[in-house]
Amino acid sequence: MATPQISNAMLDVLALLLRAWEEKTEVHGWLIMKSLRRSGPVVYGVLDRLEDAGWITGSWEVLPARQDRPRRRFYTLTAAGAEVARQQLTAAVPVRPRFRIQPGFGLIAHPRPAR
What we know:
The chain has a domain at 8-62 and 72-90: Arc Repressor Mutant, subunit A (Orthogonal Bundle). The protein has 4 helices and 3 strands. The chain has helices at residues 8-22, 29-36, 40-52, 79-91; strands at residues 27-28, 56-60, 73-77. A 3-stranded antiparallel beta sheet has the order 1-3-2. Residues 24-85 form the Transcription regulator PadR N-terminal domain. InterPro entries: Metal_resp_DNA-bind_regulator, Tscrpt_reg_PadR_N, WH-like_DNA-bd_sf, WH_DNA-bd_sf.
């Protein structure tokens, strides 16, 4: 697993994912895009690199029967990813959160299942 290059976009995504990790929730890509006000290609590119590095895991939403909408992919930091996120964010001092959780899209939208 190669260590991805750390960019401002990656720091933003890591900060949001770390907050979700601490709140024991998972977030989906669209919520990340809207909260960070970053484009889909940027966010999903970062998520791909984080997943390739083993810092996050993704899981597909299970929809109830007759639910007619696309499934969401939820992301959560791994234990190693949470440690790396803390290190990277500390090294990037001063870090100010660059994201806002949009009204109605709180991080509590999808509790992380117990493992």
